[in-house]
Write a structure and sequence with these properties.
By secondary structure, the chain is α+β, with helices and mostly antiparallel strands. Among the domains are: about 5-235, no CATH class; about 525-605, Immunoglobulin-like (Sandwich), CATH 2.60.40. It has twelve helices and 28 strands. It has helices at about 5-15, 150, 260-270, 305-310, 330-345, 350-360, 360-375, 410-415, 430-435, 440-455, 460-485, 490-525; strands at about 25-30, 35, 40, 45, 50-55, 70, 105-110, 115-130, 140-145, 185-190, 195-205, 220, 230, 245, 245-250, 280-285, 290-300, 315-320, 325-330, 385-390, 395, 530-540, 540-545, 550-555, 565-570, 580, 590-595, 600-605. A seven-stranded mixed barrel has the order 9-10-11-12-15-17-16. A hairpin with a 5-residue loop joins strand 24 (about 550-555) and strand 25 (about 565-570). The longest helix has about 35 residues, at about 490-525. It is elongated, with a radius of gyration of 29 Å. About 45% of the residues are buried.
Amino acid sequence: MKAHTFFMAIIFWGILLLGGTSYGQVTFSHTGGFYPHAFSLQLSAPEGLQIHYTADGSTPSASSPQYQQPLLLSPALYSARNLYLMRNAPEGQWNPPDEVSHAIVLRAQAFDPQGCPVGPITTHTYFVADLMQHQMQLPAISIAIDYQQLFDADSGIFSPMGWTEADQFASGNFNQHGREWERLAHVEFYEPTGGGFAQPLGIRVHGGKTRQLMQKPLKLYARKEYGNKKIKYHIFPEKPDDSYKRLVLRPFCAALTSAGIQDLLAQRIAQPLQTLSLASRPVSLFLNGEYWGIYFLQEAPDERLIEQVYGVEPDSVNIMGAWFQLENGSDRPFRQLMQWLQTADLSSPAQYQHFCSLFDVDDFIDYQLIESFIANQDWPANNIRCYQYSGAPWRWIFFDGDDCFAATDRDMPYYTTYQGPESWPSSTNATLFFRKLLESPHFLERFGNRLYQLSANHFNYEHTSPLLSAIKNEIMPEIEWQSRRFGFPQDGDHWNHSIANVDKFLRQRPAIFLKQFEALMQMHDTVNRYLLYPNPAHGEVFVQNGANTGWVQCQVYDLAGREVLSTPLFINAQPAQTHLPLSTLSAGIYMLHFSNSPVTYRLVVY
């Protein structure tokens, strides 16, 4: 080894051992991010080293352009690789645009006189308003990666090589799973107002059938061997967490309709509920400087999320996917619970209490109600994930709300109690928990209480409409560019029409949803099948009974447990009816108790 090279190596390793900045690291005069105007960028490295750089996301080498003078940011530095023209989907999904918007991604590395790399690669992405086709308003994620890692026919994770329609969910590189299909990339996240993170991360193609889309779902992995074992940044304002092991990038195109925002809206509605939901926010993705559309950066619904929420070791977490599909840990506790439940009688208080010790019933109620309210058409046979850690009761993760907010009158009680031969969208396995729980009058009371509470608050149009409006305003400036890039939505008018349909759903769904589940509860109340309608009510409510005839005493209580009304009622058998005057009551939620019924009924008064 020549003396000069030996001396440089000693300095390099000495600085690393001392924990300082790596010797030879290239310094940029401006960090990456959002800039209004173009400027000249200066690069610097220790004396005696040469700087080589790339502008297409690839790893710099000694044969890459050498930095000799400041670089003026201009379209001349846009990547000429044109990834958007490289095939990444089956024929029916492949429809590339004529052009795409660009950012400038620069990667630089120092080399010694012998052409050997010294120090790490430095990467910065610049979003210059004067140069870009559209003005950025969403946060931006820039992924820089050697294009072969994505598009090489044999090993590229975007490549459709080997895909066949007959085996469409398993063939082709983009359908492959596991660590061997993870590729190292440099990922930057920039807020429009400043802040963000930048570090090497592993990326994989993620999801199910959405892998076939041109706009692919991705999962990001932080690993110690990549330089940082966590992503350390407060990404989601609604949560206190400031570090993450894994994140998901959900594409706009994954949604059922061209509204594109179904999952984001569903997560924001679900956020205050007891069941675990996912923090999510819209971003613009750039791949090697090329615009890749609107994505939703989101927490990953896996064992690392459970670790983060509960402070438990990932190895202690059991996660079950779509009915007997083990995601993490052991499936033995879940299978034992399912086997016991097949013959259990939950009308027995003792067996019901035993089940409650193994299964978080209140968490499950919220999970059932959010999935049912949004009318998820790809559930419950699919898109389920339940978890348990260290012997704690089983709980649920709410994820994947892309196939929602469409069918206003979708009969979710039918799908949540289904026992027929089909396996999708419902199945006997998928409905076992709910069907067995409906045997218990104690569960019916808890379920009914929560049904009315959520219907009057979190599922009410006055609560959900502002959530939709905020999302619409947030991503509206990007819709034209998402449309140009992927043809989905077709244009702004189609998007506005789809958003209007979601708004219509939110306005009409609460009353339909409540009526459907009231009927379900009345059907399973084997003691007295009272029907209260209209519910929500204003002024008076009618009471109808399908079991007994005669006089009953009805007491009405407010949520503080105070009796606000007591009156005798003569109840006729169905279809006769009597009415309960409520004109003296103010708006709110009330409990109704009938003298010959062990069940307390819930009523919402407007």
